[in-house]
Specification:
Rossmann fold, single chain, alpha/beta, Uncharacterised_CoxE, 6-stranded mixed sheet
Length: 373
Amino acid sequence: MTSVEDHLFQFLRGLHLEGVRVPANKQGEFFAGIQTLAPSTTGQLYWVGAATLVTSEPDLRAYDEVFRRFFGSPATLVVDEPSAEESETETAASEGEGAGDALVVGPPGGSGLAAAHASQDAVRRFAATTPRAHELIRQLCRELPAAVPTTRSRRHRSGGRRQRVDLRAIYLDSRRTHGEIMRLHWRHRPTRERRVLLLVDVSGSMKQYSPDYLRFAYAVVATCPQAEVFTFGTRLTRVTATLRVPDVDAALAALAQVVLDADGGTLIGPSLHAFLDQFASMARGALVLVLSDGLERGDCTAMVAAVRRLSLLAHQLTWWSPLACDPDYRPLTRGMAAVRADLDALTGVDDLATALAAVRARFARTPGKGVHV
């Protein structure tokens, strides 16, 4: 083993000690990336590691710290000058694509430094919540418990309907009457709310709608005890804990520091696959809401496969799209046309008022009869 390989293995060991999971398959991808790209600068090595070893925001922070300790300061990672050939390629790409696209996919063979720099520094600022929005959030909090589907608990509890004889309670009661059974006791399985899982698209095409979508997510987390919220643009971010604060504006301000891919590009399929790889159990038997316009970039095969698996896991899979608010809207894009059959409902929601209407309609389960406001 060479000294370079030994140093890289020590780096992986340092990640493990900082709590970053680096199983064998990730290590293999890391070394395969190095072998394929042959990074000549620490900046290029940084992004090879970030792309193959990091899957969450907490992991990225730990990765930055460990990488700085082994290879140098992060400041030196983003100022590496791209080669003249890369500069020409990036210029040509920027002329042919929108600014949002440039945040996601760099040109083939480029260093990727510009894309990652824009993504990490893109901190979204949210406007203060209006009094009207506060009132709608309060109405959502009142009406959500009745709209969320329920299921029977697996545990039996005393009282309620006569489903199972409670022998223990009968025995204890009979001790007070010298063994005589004066009254039967029963146990039953009470109902409970299903988990509510929100997957919120915060990409550039959703910039106009994502603030109200996140306010709706805040109302869900404040109301539903088993709610889980994830955001996605070019990466998946779990934000449930960030939303669990008393004030909605404080929650949005905290989100701005956590969701670093806001207003960037869109990778719906890879983001949903990342969710299924790590958190698939959360979708099992849950009410799953995907809040997105469904405009996937490039090949939509991954998006179609991920939505199909979500539909198999979920109790109900509902897609909220701002585009569906138009009465003439039809899901004709390749991605939405392919996933339409897997959805329980495709509903038009573009603000808190339409979200409240969808909640009052019990999330419009029947396909083709969704709420179009």
